[in-house]
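Recall the central idea of this unit: under ordinary conditions, the amino acid sequence of a chain determines the structure it adopts. In this exercise we apply that idea directly, starting from the sequence alone.
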Amino acid sequence: MALKRFKPTSPGLRHAEWPDYSVLTPVKPEKSLLRPLPKSGGRNNQGRITSRFRGGGNKRMYRVIDFTRDKEGIPARVVTREYDPNRSAWITLLHYVDGEKRYILSPVSLEIGATVEAGENAEVRVGNAMPIRRIPLGATIHNLELSPGSGGKVARAAGTSAKLIGKEGGRAHIRMPSGEVRIFSVECRATIGAVGNPDHKNVKHGKAGRVRHLGRKPHVRGVAMNPVDHPHGGGEGRARVGRPQVSPTGKLAKGGRTRKKRKASSALIVRRAGKGRR
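Accordingly, the structure predicted from this sequence is:
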């Protein structure tokens, strides 16, 4: 998929690079798979802002996505490729032969009209889901479960994928999108292929208004605030921060480690992400 560029007929289009939506199927979303999605404005159940600079934006409905792929042995036909406002990846509507309809994440090169399947006996083919023990070494996978039956959690964003690099007994070594190598149970399920819409990371919105439509408000620098609002705030004129850069709550903002030292899942990490980390 390529990005679409425009003639600079306005300042907002001069540097804009948007996805080519012509690759999507021009249909309305499947009504039976839509759910209401109220806005939070970044606030928790106590009304306090826990995620800053959220609010406004266009109204959305949630699309119910099948991350578990637990409909085993029943083939389904790929009917549409659609936009989902709640995620960076495209989604695909499946029509199963028994009449059920489900959305899944749309993999790269999965064509409309193709047939996909999940389960032990599914072919190793793009869009099919199966346990890791059935997947050959070197395969590219996405929508990977952290524990058997929990539903896909890893490699779900646009253009991402993981790679199966080793199997030993009941454990598999998988290279995550971050470069981290991690141990998974071979009973965890994954889908063959990489997530579609790989050019999402190169999108340039071109103007502030398009970002506001997505529900994101302007990001205000801490040094531009008052001392009561941020640890970097206050001072006369342009004052330097004078301390390690932190968030409003005091957490290190520039490379400080945030992972718990005794987190149980640390035992499953073979190689850390990032240069030189172990």
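The radius of gyration is 22 Å.
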